[in-house]
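User: I'm new to structure prediction. If I give you an amino acid sequence, what do you actually give back? Let's try with this one:
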Amino acid sequence: MTRRGHEVRWLAGAPIAAELKASVKTDVAAFRRRHGYAPTLAVVLVGRDAPSAVYLRQILRTCRSLGISGRLVEMPGRASAARLRNAIVALNEDPLVAGVIVQMPLPRRIPLTTVTDVLDPAKDIDGIHPLNAGRLVVGYEGFLPTTAQAAVEILRRSGIQIAGSRAVVVGRSNIVGKPAALLLLRENATVTVCHRQTRDLAGTLRAADIVVVAAGRPGLITGSMLKRGAVVVDVGINVVGDKIVGDVDAASAAEVCSALTPVPGGVGPVTNALLMTHLLRAATAQARREAGREGGAPRRAASRREGGARAAAAGEAVRAADETAGTMAASRP
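Assistant: Good question. You get back a string of structure tokens that encode the predicted 3D arrangement of the chain. For your 333 residues, that looks like this:
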């Protein structure tokens, strides 16, 4: 209950995530019985960005709880673009790895194309490859960016009316803002996208029935900027001091919103659960293709062992090459 008797509905992600994960856990067990191995999710982390580390811990915990193998590929913040590229190529070639995600943001000197130019679209379970992004735009089947999908899934599963509503997305990143706008449009909302150059942000927000905020700025949106009765999905995850906060000032927003996602505990849990559904889908598709090529489980298992060994050897070669390059660079006058 907030001041003046107004009560906001908190759109908690945990119940939705629990339902999704229960289904995935059952399906993973069936996958293991059929194929003889657990699907593996590889998470690539460059540097130690605090919000990324929080998200990473959640992903790995989710993997363990569902019987999925989680593999951390951690690189120092000074790692070169070439090293990152080679690591992704090695994961593409590793038959044990069904899905690959690269934690964002990358260091400023490493462009996103370092990842998108080499990541296998069949293992791109977070939907950042241009092929999957294009499929989203035209409405074809593909992997959706999970955070954007989670923002809309919370609305859908919470019974929020999307069709015919006026929705505003604050943020235009390729990872969250743009795909969230496209997914809302797919649900027949009338969508406006706001960004740093938007004039009169507050005026635009006051006309919105639904607001999705993914700007990466803590406390950017306050209650005074919102329409009374609006539904607000806060995608932001920011570490401020020793607290995790969103892009919305929750205290003031709760005074006027009809519904609001908490941070933490809103979009995050649903994002992680959806990521697991994508991984299982990718693993199933890859196993089906491999069975068609090789004609049987025994050969498939042997191929995976051999391929895993080759990929591990390739990874060692990448690390050795990187260390050699670093030694040579250090020896230059």
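You can read the tokens as a compact description of the fold. Here is one thing that stands out. Residues 145-268 form a domain with the Rossmann fold fold (CATH 3.40.50.720).
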